[in-house]
Every structure is written in C-alpha cells, then in structure tokens.
Amino acid sequence: MSVAVITGSSGLIGSEAAIYFGALGLDVVVIDNDMRRVFFGADASTDWNRRRVQETLGKRYVHHDLDIRDRDAILSIFRGYGSAIELVIHTAAQPSHDWAAREPLVDFDINAVGTLNLLEAVRLHADEATFIFTSTNKVYGDRPNSLPLRELETRWEIDPEHTYWNGIREDMSIDDCLHSIFGASKVAADVLAQEYGRYYGLRTACFRGGTLTGPRHSAAELHGFLAYVMRCVMTGTPYTVYGYKGKQVRDAIHSEDLIRAFHEFFKAPRGAEVYNIGGGRFSNASVIEAIELSQEIHGEELQWTYQDANRIGDHIWWIGDNGRFESHYPGWSLEYDVPRILEEIRDANRDRWRRAAVGSPARSG
Question: What is the pLDDT of residues 108-134, one digit of tens each?
C-alpha cells in the first residue's frame, strides 16, 4: 500500500491533489474539517468539494474530520500508516490577512503549529516520505513594494532593466519588512519545513505561490481573488477595490499546473527546497485588468467601487520567477494563462453561482 496524506483536502489545491494522486494509484488519506466555513461563512464551505472528491476516489479515499492543531490525532494517523506514507501535501491553512489580524493566536496555531505537528509526525513515523508545503509569496512581506515600479494605464510595472523583470526570485530578503500577522505565521511554517529538511534530512519543499486559482475554489470576499471577481460578475455582487488605483499586479497559477509541479518534485524529491511558483510573465493581471477580462468573458458589467486605503502588507506588484524550479525539473511548464483560467472558472460554476443577492460587499483579494 502506498499512501498520500493530504491536509486541507476539500480546498482548491488539496482536492485537486487528492484526485490527481489517487488517479496515479495512491491511497489518499485526507485531513479536513471545513475550517473555511468558520473563517469566511457558510458560502465558503468546502463540503460540496469534499463530496465530489469522495465520489471520485471511492475506496481509495479515507477522510479524517479533524484539525491539524490536534497533535495527538495527527500523530495517531501517521503512526497507523507508518512507512506506507510516501507523500504528504500540506495545504491546510488560515489564508486571510484580515482574519489573522483579528485572531492572531488562532492564525499562528493553525499555520505555524499545525505545520510543526505534521513535520514532527513525518519525522517520527514516515521519514522517507516527500513533504510538500504550500507556502506563500507573503513570506517576503511588503519587500516587493520597494522595487522601482512605474505606473502604467492599467497596472504597475517594474523597470525593464531590473534584475527582477522576469519575476522575483528566491534571493529576495524576507527580513526588515512588514509581513502582516498572516505572513509571519507562514514564515514560521516555511522556515520549519526548511529546517526539518536540513536538520533532520527530510525531503521537504516550500512552494511559495502567488495567486493559486482554479474552478474548484470556494471563493470568498477575503480570499480567492480571480474566482471571487468572476463570481461577483456572475452573481451581480458589488465589489470593492482597495488601494493602488486597482493597478496592483498578481501572477496566477492554475491548480492543475501547480499539482503537476508537485508531481515532478515527488518523482525526484530533494531536501529543504524553496521554490517561488506562480504564473510568472505567462499568467498575470492587475485587479482592474482581471475585472475587465471577467466582464468580457461573461458579458456583464461588474458593480465595483474604489477606496484609497490599501490592505496592510499588500503587494503592489508580484510576478514570481519560476526559474529555480524549472532548472531542477525541466519537464514542467505552465499551461494556463489568466484568460483561460477565468473562462474555466465561469464555465465550471454556472450552476453553483446563480444570480442572487449577496448581503456583504466584496473586496479585492
């Protein structure tokens, strides 16, 4: 028996990873307690996605409805499967800046301590397993905002002569900048994953993603940028853009492209690796560019307003450089750009996102 343990398995990346690796023949043991409902309300529940994954995988699927903060329960699961565990994909997290600022202890316990619980379980009971951690570009704090940026008609852009023109590399410092509470908890988890790779010799990798997206995102106003823009267009929900004239840029990687990267790492794992991973120059958009594309694709106008105050620690410009990962795994490349991603989100969610009144205004993600 070969086992993949996947946390956050009903979320966007976790669910797609479960189906992908289950199709490769691994038995999939999943850990998810629908905390997204707690963070963002009933509309953000991932229970619908849990049912989809369970129906798809059938007998290859074992679900544990528990919290990654429950150390004893996590250790028990890993103890039970032991060396049969070949792969751990850790996607469970508290993902919102705003939520973290309101509940910093809960945020840190989930993002940092929960990750430590999983790493220790791997070290004790499955030390040959590959451990993949979905980190975030927020580990760089607001450092990217110090880059020499120029204001263009629909976006901010970096000086073409700058070393990061093709994207920000892993050599950007994470020190002496504003991270947000969420960013700080993810830094702690990221460094822990690296240290368990270096100190204990585990096969760990931190994938520092930008905007992770795709059609199975349970989009909410505080998390899920591209999917939530399209949802607002499709449902007539008002949307608020915060700061930087709506010209802040994000690169976007489709869940399928990301999970294929996970597979490449699983086939030839390394230790204590760190990879910036995202849409790069191939797949990126500013907030107002994403709004315009969504309107064009769906054929309806979005009701959106603007407020000058930006979110604390928000990036003005983020395009990541995938070069390090591509140099290690040259067989991988991106397939989805932003227009294709938005079209797929629209097509996959027509029935789920029927036009309805939504009580609270939306926000830029």
Answer: 999 999 999 999 999 999 999 999 999
Residue showing tokens 């990061």: 164
Residue 160: half-sphere exposure toward Cβ, Cα within 13 Å: 1
Structure token digits, residue 35: 């905390």
62: Cα separation from own chain's centroid: 23
Nearest in space to 99 (alpha carbons), one of 13, 166, 151, 40: 40
Which single residue is written with the structure tokens 């070290």?
123
How large is the C-alpha radius of gyration of the chain?
19
Decide: 270 and 203 in contact? Cβ < 8 Å.
yes
Distance CA 256, CA 16 (A): 7
Q: What is the pTM of this model?
A: 0.94
Structure tokens at 309: 């105050």
Name the β-bridge partners of 134. Answer: 207
Tokens (6 digits) for 107:
């945020």
Contacts of 242 (CB under 8 A, 6+ apart): 307, 309, 310, 311, 314, 363, 364
- If one counts every other C-beta atom within 10 angstroms of the C-beta of residue 356, the result is 9
Q: How far apart are CA 153 and CA 269, in angstroms?
A: 43
Q: Do 82 and 122 contact (CB within 8 A), yes or no?
A: no
